[in-house]
Amino acid sequence: MLSIAWAPLYAHPLPENHRFPMLKYELLPEQLLREGVVTEASFFTPQPPPEVEILRTHDAEYYRRLVAGELTRQEERATGFPWSGQLIEREVTILGGTLECARRALPQGIALNIAGGTHHAFADRGEGFCLLNDQAAAANYLLAHEPGIRKILIVDLDVHQGNGTAAIFQHEPRVFTFSMHGARNYPLRKEQSNLDLPLADGTDDATYLGLLADTLPRLLDEVQPDFVFYLAGVDVLATDKLGHLGLSREGCRRRDELVLRLCQQNQLPVVVCMGGGYSVRIADIVEAHANTFRVAAELYT
């Protein structure tokens, strides 16, 4: 049985212009249950983690100001979200969900968060709809609490570079950051991951999957990770309003299968977070995300 983090507040109500991207957090669990991909027992309700686990990754003064609603207007604009106490509760809970997924993936092989993948959050600031970096915090949790976890690989396949994650682990040799993203997409100023693979606009299934199939097995051999975090953004789709790549829904599914099958074959625990998705039709977003869970269910149950 898959372990999946989900809470109703993942679909936190925002002003109307922010509402559409949040619908997937309501519709995706319903779709998976309706199809029988998972059962109600697969879902667990994440809890906010102890503050110390957030501060392993985030600057204490930034976190204090974030919680207190003391960000400047410029800082708030950079996040893309208007501040509210409920928004902060949502972000902290998503982080707690990814952290709990990391604990569950150790014995189970895999755990998934319906949300998460907030890779634009830096240690001391938020950007691009990301306030706290959930995968970075979970990686730091494992390094602090699990002696058997000596090396972590973060596989970031969202269409946008994981700039916050790259910066957080810039001087941490125990975490290898790999980002495969649109070369001309947000953020304008890229950080340096351990490995960045920038892609041309319109990159199609064959080119994308060929590059990933050539790269990821080699990385597993070279990095020798004990644990993998996978950011499975579906903003790589040709239908995405912000992505500019050319993947089909089937190509996106094959991407997920490639990553998860390699993790399974190498007996590497993996945590999967959903990341971005901004197609015009909500059905395209939900179906592509649902494929990630369908693949996980086929491989792990």
From TrEMBL:
UniProt cross-references to Gene3D superfamilies, sorted A to Z: Histone deacetylase domain
Keywords linked to the UniProt accession: Hydrolase
InterPro entries in the record: HDAC_classIV, HDACs, His_deacetylse_dom, His_deacetylse_dom_sf, Ureohydrolase_dom_sf
CDD domains in alphabetical order: HDAC_classIV
Species the sequence originates in: Hymenobacter chitinivorans DSM 11115
Family listed: Belongs to the histone deacetylase family.
GO MF assignments: histone deacetylase activity; hydrolase activity
Annotated SUPFAM superfamilies: Arginase/deacetylase (SSF52768)
Pfam families in UniProt: Hist_deacetyl
GO biological process, one term: epigenetic regulation of gene expression
Listed name of the protein: Acetoin utilization deacetylase AcuC-like enzyme
Residue intervals of the Histone deacetylase domain: 22-290
Record bears the keyword Disulfide bond: no
Alphabetical list of PANTHER family matching this protein: HISTONE DEACETYLASE 12, HISTONE DEACETYLASE HDAC1-RELATED
